[in-house]
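Section 4.2 – Deliverable D4.2 (structural model, holo form)

The reporting period included a commitment to supply a predicted holo structure for the target in complex with zinc ion. Inputs used:
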Amino acid sequence: MLAMVLDAPGRALRSVELPDPQPGPGQVLVRVAACGVCRTDLHVVDGELPDPKLPLVPGHQVVGRLPSGERVGIPWLGWTDGECRYCLSGRENLCDRARFAGYQLDGGYAELAVADERFVVPIPEEYDDVAAAPLLCAGLIGYRALRLAGDGERIGLYGFGASAHIVAQVARHQGRRVFAFTRAGDGAAQSLALELGAEWAGDAAGPAPKELDAAIIFAPAGELVPAALRATAKDGTVVCAGIHMSDIPSFPYELLWGERQIRSVANLTRKDAHEFLALAPQAPVRTEIETFPLESANEALERLRAGKVRGAAVLVV
Ligand SMILES: [Zn+2]
Ligand SMILES: [Zn+2]
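Output (structure tokens):
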């Protein structure tokens, strides 16, 4: 099979022919049709996450078909032990021994992938392969972040990329008000936000137009934490939704005072995936996509790094 492979962090992916992967016991073979490109892939490629499998096939928003023809998705959570105290209490996203697709397990930047049959998810028929791919991480981890942000009406989204563009639509569907905070002068992201129902879009470094009930930070920039706290009302929550973030600068305690909370969101549970994939077609969530051929994965990653992707980037296999 053709695959894009990471030999070592900090290097470009290499296009190679690999032997077809063989599914082991309890695994399925998936013929990949599309694979979303996530900021986490960039963190893996850049060496910002410890101990990736090497060499590695990245990619954890995989849409493909089983030999039976059934269409499935392979999300980030690829395996859990099922027996630690997290797994046994409905928190498999925190499993001590969890393994993740496109990080510790080979993922979907390839023509074929294998996955644990207990962790693949069905894809809603309303979406074609490409449109469905970003639902599998940007969508469902974004959905988890929105849930953990609480029930507040005024939601601030910091960084308006793949995840925020989906979360904005879910939040609007739930009757909430959305405020989009982007890099200064990012007119493309701001116009997409307004198109998708945000009532305001502007510079994350500037003042918020309204006091927020909660904020979700998707951009990996620690300086947004005090900025979001400053914009958030008493009892509000600031959710850090990314797997990696630059250091958070110190800030005066008064920003946290008033029962404000800061929390992270880590990974997903299968329950999150099933809930979100049922909700997405009802909202309905529409995904804005830029496609790239599999062999152009490096270009897709570079556009993502530069903040140039409008919505989500997807590799077409
Ligand atoms: Zn566990
Ligand atoms: Zn992801």
